[in-house]
Design goal:
It is built from three helices and three strands, in the order ααβββα. The protein is of the alpha+beta class.
Length: 150
């Protein structure tokens, strides 16, 4: 009698196991797809950050060889506009002269440092949250008005 009950339970388990396996597979697929979406989103943000750092470097290099802050800002803005193309209205470039301890009013002189900051508005592919990403780079001014007159 006990053996007959065990055989019935075994038959029921075999019939039900196919449905349970399909349900388990469907639930697992949802989680696996969610993980894949997160990985793709992280890769997109990482790639965008890397490209933004390269653009910031190029804009900073264009700025440090200029002879004034106004020309440096214009050169950096041109680099960023060329890099982003039609998306150029969604970014911002800022060039500022960094202060050191001895100089309270910094000027555009060779040897002083500038900070080039590039900000870009990113719309992730798989994520609904829009994000503003920025990066900055500190560089030394290589050119000034004195070196042009001497």
């Amino acid at each position: 009698m006990m053996i007959a009950k065990l055989k019935k339970i075994k038959k029921l388990y075999k019939k039900a196991s196919k449905g349970v396996e399909a349900l388990t597979f469907a639930i697992c697929m949802v989680f696996i797809l969610q993980i894949i979406v997160y990985i793709v989103g992280i890769m997109q943000i990482s790639t965008t950050k890397e490209q933004l750092q390269n653009i910031c470097y190029n804009a900073g290099r264009a700025a440090v060889v200029c002879d004034s802050k106004d020309r440096a800002e214009n050169a950096a803005k041109k680099i960023v506009k060329n890099a982003f193309g039609s998306l150029s209205n969604r970014n911002n470039v800022k060039i500022e002269i960094l202060r050191d301890g001895s100089n309270s009013n910094p000027s555009w002189e060779k040897g002083n440092y500038i900070r080039c900051t590039v900000t870009h508005y990113v719309i992730p592919t798989f994520n609904n949250s829009d994000k503003t990403t920025s990066t900055y780079l500190d560089m030394m001014i290589e050119n000034d008005t004195e070196s042009l007159t001497n």
